[in-house]
Write a structure and sequence with these properties.
Elements lengths: L1 H22 L23 E2 L18 E2 L2 E4 L10 E7 L4 E7 L9 E6 L9 E7 L19 E8 L5 E2 L1 E5 L10 E4 L2 E2 L5 E6 L10 E8 L7 E10 L1
């Protein structure tokens, strides 16, 4: 009986010690996240570097840029060279239809982008716009912009389905929020013709160190009372 009682007391004592050790907390540091602190994307393939320069995706130091070789927003549907996503719908967003793989007379390659803007004023805004963003649906609430330092202009080709379509503004940058774009630039209004025309946004003197809104257009029903259909192609930073 005494032996059984002793074993019981020893077992209880062991349980008490175990509970104290478990509840008292650990002095070991918590494991750190392996997600980079700076998620800014810098496309190495679009820059040339000195041999001694280093580069790391997601690093806060992009390395010394010695030459800008171009940065494509859209060249052809599903091209691995494309950057940014046409995800930032604005205004009467239900009135916008986007086809990124349209085969109707592209300027270059096999496809172009077709934009159809109806005049239904679905959200009551009377205007529409669309941002190409990185990552998709990024309104400045998270990191993801590209460092485009070295670019001097943003060029693109556009045409209208009938001619006379008016786009109030084409631009880049301008996204605000917790992680805002470092600058903004644009042109407009632009009156489109049925022929492909090349347009250029001057980026001279602009701070391009962080751009999550790579391309954008906007227009309204007052200047397009019947709606509008227009095409875009070969959008790139040079």
């Amino acid at each position: 009986m005494k032996k059984s009682l002793s074993l019981t007391l020893l077992t209880l004592a062991g349980l008490i010690v175990f509970c104290i050790a478990s509840c008292g907390g650990s002095s070991q540091p918590q494991a750190k996240s392996n997600i980079p602190e700076d998620a800014k994307q810098v496309a190495k393939a679009n820059y040339s570097y000195d041999e001694e320069d280093t580069y790391g995706m997601g690093s806060s130091t992009a390395g010394k840029v010695t030459g800008f070789k171009g940065f494509k927003v859209y060249t052809d549907a599903r091209s691995p060279d494309n950057h940014y996503i046409p995800s930032g719908y604005m205004g009467d967003y239900s009135d916008i239809k986007v086809e990124t793989a349209n085969f109707d007379n592209p300027h270059g390659g096999t496809t172009c982008i077709k934009i159809t803007y109806s005049n239904t004023v679905s959200q009551g805004a009377r205007w529409v716009g669309l941002y190409w963003q990185s990552p998709a649906n990024n309104w400045g609430d998270r990191k993801g912009g590209f460092d485009l330092t070295g670019a001097t202009k943003l060029t693109f080709w556009a045409r209208g389905a009938k001619g006379g379509e008016r786009v109030e503004e084409f631009k880049m940058g301008g996204i605000t929020g917790l992680y805002p774009d470092s600058d903004i630039a644009g042109i407009g209004p632009v009156m489109l013709t049925t022929d492909w025309q090349k347009y250029e946004i001057d980026l001279s003197g602009k701070d391009l160190s962080y751009i999550s809104g790579g391309f954008c257009w906007g227009t309204n029903i007052d200047v397009n009372p019947d709606g509008a259909i227009f095409y875009l192609d070969d959008i790139k930073y040079e």
